[in-house]
Amino acid sequence: TRMRALFATGGARIGLTTSTGCGAVTTPTTTPVSGTSNTLTVGNGTGTSTTPYGTYYMDQKVQYIITKAELVAAGYSSTNNIIKSLAFNVATASTQVMNGFTIKLKNTTSGSFSSTSFLSNTGMTTVYSANTSASAGWKTHAFTTPFTYNGIDNLLVEICFDNSAYTTDSKTYY
């Protein structure tokens, strides 16, 4: 999936998805981040996918691995190690609200999914949680808790939401 990450100084590949949501969600605390920012775009945007805004089913959980090589190719440097937001380029948007839309991140040595199972989410940091809906164009999720990328490993992104109703899917470019 084509996505943008906002890295701050000082600081995609489609993975697995399921129609079972993320369960209980806690609200993270706000951590201020200062310094300059650099936006990195991963993905070429030539096709479309329903993740992470797949509302055809009531719930969804998806994981992406963004490799260090992809980040470097997009312009990452070791002076930019704090991720402040994540955005997805939405081709078509459904009006369905996604309840408890949660983004979690962690550094990982995994470079791929070896089976149909999700990677372990132990140690993930909840960086964003809100009720939200997709909108056409770049849909940005500004983190309430910035994430420190270690600059060595790959990045695991997990997104989920829990709804009690369903509608049509939104489509994002990848």
Walk me through this protein's architecture:
This protein has 174 residues and is mostly beta strands. The protein contains 1 helix and 11 strands. The chain has one helix at 68-73; strands at 3-9, 13-18, 37-42, 48-49, 59-66, 80-92, 98-108, 125-132, 137-148, 154-162, 171-173. Strands 1, 3, 4, 6, 9 and 11 form a 6-stranded antiparallel sheet that branches. A 5-stranded antiparallel sheet has the order 2-5-10-7-8. Residues 8-20 and 23-34 have low confidence and may be disordered.
Record the SSE blueprint.
Elements: E1 3-9, E2 13-18, E3 37-42, E4 48-49, E5 59-66, H1 68-73, E6 80-92, E7 98-108, E8 125-132, E9 137-148, E10 154-162, E11 171-173
Antiparallel strand pairs: 1-3, 1-6, 2-5, 4-11, 5-10, 6-9, 6-11, 7-8, 7-10
Task: Give a short overview.
This protein has 174 residues and is mainly beta.
User: What is the mean predicted local confidence, pLDDT?
Assistant: 81
Strand tally, please? Answer: 11
In helices, the fraction of residues equals under 10%
Low-confidence stretches: 8-20, 23-34
Determine the N-to-C terminus distance: 4 Å
Q: What is the beta-strand fraction? A: over 45%
Query: What is the SS-derived class?
Result: mainly beta
Order of helices and strands: EEEEEHEEEEEE
* Rg, Å, rounded: 15 Å
- How would you sum up the major sheet? 6 strands, antiparallel
Tally the helices: 1
The dominant shape is: globular
Name the features.
single chain, 174 residues, mainly beta, six-stranded antiparallel beta sheet, five-stranded antiparallel beta sheet, 1 helix, 11 strands, 49% strand, globular
